[in-house]
TrEMBL record:
Pfam families: GerE, Response_reg. The lineage of its organism: Bacteria, Bacillati, Actinomycetota, Actinomycetes, Pseudonocardiales. Residues 162-227 form the HTH luxR-type domain. One of its GO terms (biological process) is phosphorelay signal transduction system. Transmembrane segments: none annotated. This is DNA-binding response regulator, NarL/FixJ family, contains REC and HTH domains. The keyword Cell cycle does not apply. SUPFAM superfamilies: C-terminal effector domain of the bipartite response regulators (SSF46894), CheY-like (SSF52172). It comes from Actinokineospora iranica. The keyword Membrane does not apply. SMART domains: HTH_LUXR (SM00421), REC (SM00448). Keywords: DNA-binding, Phosphoprotein, Transcription, Transcription regulation. The modification 4-aspartylphosphate is found at D69. GO terms for molecular function: DNA binding.
């Protein structure tokens, strides 16, 4: 599986990416932590079994990326994201799911999650996804993107419909949207297209307004669905 997630480093990239892992299955947490421990630039600083523990990790530890299961006892991932939105320094949240993208995943993205991955993602893809999320990029498992489209309230589009919507954008906006779909951060897009950061921010805002996407992650889903990454 190739998720097209790996991107070039930037000067702003942290030396060590601090990660929290929250899942009610001990074996799943152990699997994820073991994989991330093999990466020299990633450090798992805390683990939790439910949303309450996720909130405590964020309150007490300096976390860059939170890997969050959606279906947990006591407090699930959706309620956790609602609470995290109130936190002054919400980390980048990547949702972990099992077999398919459903309405819960779509809701998580609308609540600010940076993307989603299969729980049993290949090790190299998991590490790359954490790095992308830490840089502010969108993390998408392409095997789930098609399923997710049907659950996004603003985009009940098939591939042809998505392509038609994207075709209404200018060539420059399509270039920016393609890079958003590849998981690039604003800084990386600016460097690649030789634009200022403020110009890229303006273009991304224009794309969201023109397409009705709620955030850059749903815009990345639209880019993939429209075939911009083919």
């Amino acid at each position: 599986m190739n998720t097209d997630l790996e991107v070039a480093g930037t000067a702003a990239e942290p030396t060590t990416i601090r990660v929290g892992v929250v899942d009610d299955e001990p074996m799943a947490r152990s699997f994820v932590a073991k994989i991330l421990a093999s990466a020299g630039d990633v450090l798992v600083v805390g683990e939790g079994a439910h949303g309450g523990e996720a909130l405590e990790l964020v309150r007490t530890l300096d976390i860059d990326v939170l890997l969050l299961d959606l279906r947990m006892p006591r407090m699930d991932g959706i309620d956790t994201l609602r609470e995290l939105r109130r936190h002054p320094s919400m980390p980048a949240v990547v949702v972990l799911t099992t077999f398919h993208a459903d309405q819960a995943v779509a809701t998580a993205l609308q609540l600010g999650a940076k993307g989603f991955l299969l729980k049993h993602v290949e090790p190299a893809e998991l590490v790359r996804a954490v790095r992308v999320a830490a840089r502010g990029g969108a993390v998408l498992d392409p095997s789930l993107t098609s399923d997710l489209m049907g659950h996004l309230a603003t985009h009940h589009l098939d591939r042809i419909g998505a392509a038609a919507e994207v075709a209404r954008l200018s060539a420059r906006l399509r270039d920016v949207l393609r890079l958003v779909g590849m998981g690039r951060s604003n800084n990386e897009i600016a460097a690649e297209l030789r634009l200022s950061d403020s110009t890229v921010r303006g273009y991304v805002s224009e794309i969201l307004a023109a397409t009705g996407c709620s955030n850059r992650v749903t815009a990345a889903v639209l880019a993939q669905r429209a075939g911009l990454l083919d």
